[in-house]
Each structure stands twice: as structure tokens, then as C-alpha cells.
Design goal:
This protein is an all-alpha fold. The chain is 81% helix and 3% strand. Helix 3 packs across helix 4.
Length: 158
């Protein structure tokens, strides 16, 4: 047996003493400890620790703690689901915004024909259109985020 295998089996002694190993792992630990005196002694020490721990008084868990913990887990799950739904909604709104902007650009190009210049800038050109529509989209998204945040805070404290 190599020293790595020996160390791996020794690391499983606390688990074997506690009775949490599966049959195959427990059999390997017991077979090794039967042939190795130092490991047999160490496994006996771990067994005495485990039996001593079982004899200690077990504290009673207050029912209010269990209820609070269950409630907290449910609230955490609900808030995670809510965050995921908000993220999906925001993603859908971004895709919708881009599609609407592109469709509006196509309509504007067909209506205006080639150019619509303001201060020497062709507003229906691809770059100015993307810049202007992105600016309007970010302002709208920022306003919506502020409204959602204020609605979320008032709902939480009611």
C-alpha cells in the first residue's frame, strides 16, 4: 500500500467512527486497520470520541427557530425568483427596445428617403440613429428602474 492510499484511509477514520461511510469504504478502512497497528489504535480513539459525543445531552431546537428558518428560506427563494424574473423582463425589454429602434430606423429611412439633417448631422444615418436611440433608451430605462425601485421599497414595508 502506498503512503497516499494509507493517508486517504486515515482521513476516513472519523467518518468510519461516526458510521457515515458506505459499505465499500468502511470495508476498506476496516481491512486496512486490521493489518496496521497504528491505524487500529487511531480508529479506536476516533470510535471512543464518537461514542462520547453520542452520550452528550442534545440541545432542544426551539420551534420558533425552525419556523423562522423555514420562513427565511422561503423568502430567500421568493426573492431569488423575483430577481430572476426581473432579469428576464429587463432582457426582454432590451431586445424589444433594439427591435423597435431598428424598425423605427427602417421606417424613418423609407419616409425621409436618404437624409434628415439637423445642424449638419444626418439623424437617420446609422451612427447618429443608434446614438440618439440609445440615449433615449437609457433615459427611459433609468426612469423605469427608479420607479420599480420606489415601488419595490414601498411594497416591502407595508
Amino acid at each position: 500500500m502506498t503512503s497516499v492510499e494509507h493517508d486517504t484511509l486515515r482521513a476516513q477514520f472519523p467518518l468510519a467512527a461516526a458510521g457515515v461511510l458506505d459499505e465499500r469504504e468502511l470495508r476498506a478502512v476496516l481491512e486496512h486497520s486490521a493489518g496496521c497497528e497504528s491505524c487500529r489504535c487511531e480508529l479506536d480513539v476516533w470510535r471512543s470520541y464518537a461514542s462520547g459525543l453520542h452520550q452528550l445531552p442534545q440541545p432542544a431546537i426551539p420551534t420558533s427557530l425552525v419556523r423562522r428558518t423555514q420562513l427565511r428560506v422561503l423568502q430567500d427563494r421568493e426573492s431569488a425568483l423575483e430577481r430572476r424574473n426581473y432579469a428576464l423582463l429587463m432582457g426582454a425589454l432590451v431586445v424589444f427596445s433594439w427591435a423597435t429602434s431598428f424598425a423605427a430606423w427602417l421606417v424613418a429611412r423609407s419616409v425621409v428617403d436618404v437624409s434628415f439633417e439637423v445642424y449638419g448631422i444626418n439623424l437617420v444615418g446609422p451612427f447618429p440613429w443608434v446614438l440618439l436611440s440609445s440615449l433615449l433608451t437609457w433615459v427611459t430605462a433609468g426612469s423605469a428602474a427608479m420607479l420599480l425601485a420606489s415601488h419595490r421599497n414601498t411594497r416591502r414595508f407595508q
